[in-house]
Design brief:
Strand content: 15-25%
CATH topology of the largest domain: Jelly Rolls
Number of helices: 8
Distance between the termini: 52 Å
Strand order of the largest sheet: 1-8-3-6
CATH superfamily of the largest domain: Jelly Rolls
Order of helices and strands: HHEEEEEEHEEHHHEHHEE
Length: 222
């Protein structure tokens, strides 16, 4: 339980909540946990979204497929990250995305209406939960705007450089690791896998960057 609490403390919805209050919250919110293996579906396109999920361990991807089967990775989520909150908040009838595990996962679920409505005990923490939920949705909106900036670039190279620049800003370093495989990176950038590999090879030859599997170094412009 202690390890679980430490993870939940990192979750955006429980920011600035004491451990004592968190234990009380989880009981009041009727939170429950489920265990999954790799490639299990946490949320399927078309499902009704009434709960939010918090990743307690492992990782998953939020993906969207068109009618032709083309796959776009919207984002990757890991320990303490949440999913489903925007759709539940917007009262979306059917989920437009699928959430699939990329490793074994433990997930805690909370009914969204229990977060935003006052219970019979009139618990004082609901206001804080709502504030945290609004902050989380705003942060994810900023991330999605960043992805729009990446996808709005015209060429594969421009999209790739925009993505790598985002990683430099995130880590504060020009050497970093990404979690995506080449296929997954192509899906995230909405580009052809072969075109991505060719562009990476060209950029390496031009001494713009270097890479070894999922570790990258981006050299400063001369």
């Amino acid at each position: 339980m202690n390890n679980k609490i430490e993870i939940l403390k990192q979750a955006a919805i429980f920011q600035n909540v004491s451990e004592k209050n968190m234990l009380y919250m989880l009981d009041c919110l009727k939170a429950y946990e489920q265990i999954y293996t790799k490639n299990d579906i946490l949320l399927l396109t078309g499902d009704k979204v009434s709960s939010v999920g918090i990743i307690l361990s492992g990782s998953a991807q939020i993906v969207k497929e068109d009618i032709m089967g083309n796959r776009n990775i919207v984002s990757e989520i890991g320990t303490s990250d949440m999913f489903g909150e925007a759709f539940a908040c917007a009262n979306v009838a059917k989920s437009p995305v699928t959430v699939i595990t990329t490793t074994g996962c433990a997930v805690m679920y909370i009914q969204f209406n229990k977060i935003v409505t006052t219970c019979s005990s009139s618990c004082s923490f609901h206001t804080k939960l709502i504030e945290n939920m609004l902050s989380l949705i705003a942060q994810k909106n900023i991330f999605l705007n960043s992805k729009i900036d990446i996808l709005s670039q015209r060429s594969t190279r421009e999209k790739l450089m925009a993505y790598l620049s985002m990683q430099i800003q995130r880590t504060g370093k020009n050497r970093f690791k990404i979690s995506f495989s080449r296929d997954e990176l192509a899906d995230f950038l909405c580009v052809n896998r072969s075109a991505l590999s060719r562009e990476l090879s060209k950029m390496k030859q031009e001494n713009i960057l270097d890479y070894d599997r999922n570790e990258f170094v981006v050299y400063p412009a001369e």
